[in-house]
Amino acid sequence: MSSTAPPSGIDHVDERLLRTTPLKKFLARPELGSVVGALAVFVFFSVFADSFLRASSLGTVLYAASTIGIMAVPVALLMIGGEFDLSAGVLVTSSALISSMVSFQMTANVWVGVGVSLLVTLAIGAFNGFMLTRTGLPSFIITLGTFLMLTGLNLGLTKLISGTVSTKTIADMEGFSSARRLFASQLTLGGVEFKVTILWWIGLVALATWVLLRTRFGNWIFAVGGGADAARAVGVPVHRTKIGLYLGVAFCAWVSGQHLLFSFDVVQSGEGVGNELIYIIAAVIGGCLITGGYGSAIGSAVGALIFGMTSKGIVYAEWNPDWFKFFLGAMLLLATLLNAWIRKRVEATK
Predict the structure, then answer these.
(1) b/e per residue 181-208 (b: at least 16 CB within 10 A)
(2) What is the pLDDT of residues 295-333, one digit of tens each?
(3) Taking each helix axis from N to C terminus, what angle separates 275-285 and 324-348, rounded to the nearest 10 degrees?
(4) What pLDDT is stored for residue 106 in this prediction?
(5) Would you say 113 and 96 are in contact if contact means Cβ atoms under 8 Å apart?
(6) Contacts 24+ apart (CB under 8 A), 101-105
(7) Which of 323, 318, 335, 301 is nearest to 65 (CA)?
């Protein structure tokens, strides 16, 4: 019989070679704490809100979750890579404003504005990534600067061009109906209406999960988040990886921005401020660590679902909506503590 003991002089065996039980693998999943939290929130509002379990409420809850979840996915990947983006909330509004104002001022097909918005939004994401990698400043400082600049530009340019703090209507322009079908339509299944953003959300979660678990780029994300210097030493293109992550945030901000525009036709220039914190909260509730190197796209989806259930559950329970932030903060703390406890238990049994 061959021995499984490590050779003489070697203190330990690579943990990737150690056998583990299915239970330990399950407990090590980063989204476990958020799943437990989601079940608790579901049961809670099922008891205290009579209309929460109605079929019609399902579409409303999922829609609220999807508007956060679309952005929580790339923000989660960015956090796994060890960085933040405080400009993500206002970037959504910037994307919508660009589409609207370019289309209106050029009196062109709205798809022209949508295309220009995509290019500009991606350029802003690339700017964040480039400044981060070239200056060496913390992403908190870089994206805080971008946040402030975009907030000022959104308001200043909108008032300069439109004369007010909101854009002009583009509902009568060519291409509006087709763009609305893509970004803001709704489907009816079993008598329940579902917004198309739910499909965007599910698709992005599936794509991000595949990238993280099945591609080289996914390995790079975890490596960079675990330690940029160590990742660089083994050949990981750290700068390209981080710029790519910021481009991912920008793309999803573009999708969210187009939904905002084609849902309501006009855009208020001051919208989006503060949403970046909600995206980060959803990612952290979903199991992402502030320090990077750990998390999942599925966890961010569960975190967004908790947000949707909480925001609508309070309404269905006919409570004062001022309590929403309290419940969200409490869930953030509980999910983080539960994740930390689970990780310690798993590490203790290795």
Answers:
(1) eebbbeeeeeeeebbbbbebbeebbeeb
(2) 899 999 999 999 899 889 988 988 888 777 787 788 778
(3) 30
(4) 85
(5) no
(6) 101/157, 101/158, 101/161, 101/162, 101/167, 103/170, 103/173, 104/167, 104/168, 104/170, 104/173, 105/161
(7) 301
Would you tell me how many other CB atoms lie within 10 Å of the CB of residue 12?
Answer: 7
Q: Which two tokens stand for residue 168?
A: 């002009």
Kindly report the CA angle at 170 between 90 and 100, in degrees rounded to 5?
A: 30
pLDDT tens, residue by residue, 131-181: 999 999 999 999 999 999 999 999 999 999 888 999 999 999 999 999 999
Q: Is the pLDDT of residue 75 over 90?
A: yes
Identity (one letter) of the amino acid at 318? Answer: E
H/E run at residue 46: helix 32-48
194 neighbors 187 (Cβ within 8 angstroms): yes
Task: Tell me the C-alpha distance between 31 and 303, whole Å.
Answer: 9
Answer whether residue 41 shows pLDDT above 60. yes
Tokens (6 digits) for 25: 């693998």
- What 3-state class would DSSP assign to 241? helix
Residue type at 92 in one-letter notation: V
Q: Report whether 300 contacts 35 (CB < 8 A).
A: no
* pLDDT surpasses 60 at 15: no
